[in-house]
Amino acid sequence: MPINKATIMPRGPTLGHVSMLPENDRWSETRSQLLAQMDVSMGGRVAEELIFGNEYITTGASSDFDGATKIAKMMVTSLG
């Protein structure tokens, strides 16, 4: 999925955001597409660890963890 916009500017309750462009009329997603979505979701936390170190990570990526966990759970429980 192509990236539409990525920002590290805080807006509302988020400290940064990545939005993806939808692929035309996609009705289903492949395993690799789902894994890629999980990778993107975890990018913010990885960036925090790389820039600030393990001692200074924040709760900012909690909604990203929620999204990645939801995808992983769906992959295991619904898709096998």
Briefly say what this structure is.
This protein has 80 residues and is mainly alpha-helical.
Intertermini distance? 23 Å
Q: What is the total number of structural domains?
A: 1
Low confidence ranges:
none
How would a textbook summarize the main sheet? 2 strands, antiparallel
Architecture overview:
This protein has 80 residues and is mainly alpha-helical. It has one domain. Helix content is 48%, strand content 11%. It has helices spanning 31-52, 62-77; strands spanning 3-7, 17-20. The chain starts with a strand and ends with a helix.
How is this fold's topology laid out?
Elements: E1 3-7, E2 17-20, H1 31-52, H2 62-77
Antiparallel strand pairs: 1-2
What labels describe this entry?
80 residues; mainly alpha; two-stranded antiparallel ribbon; 2 helices; 2 strands; 11% strand
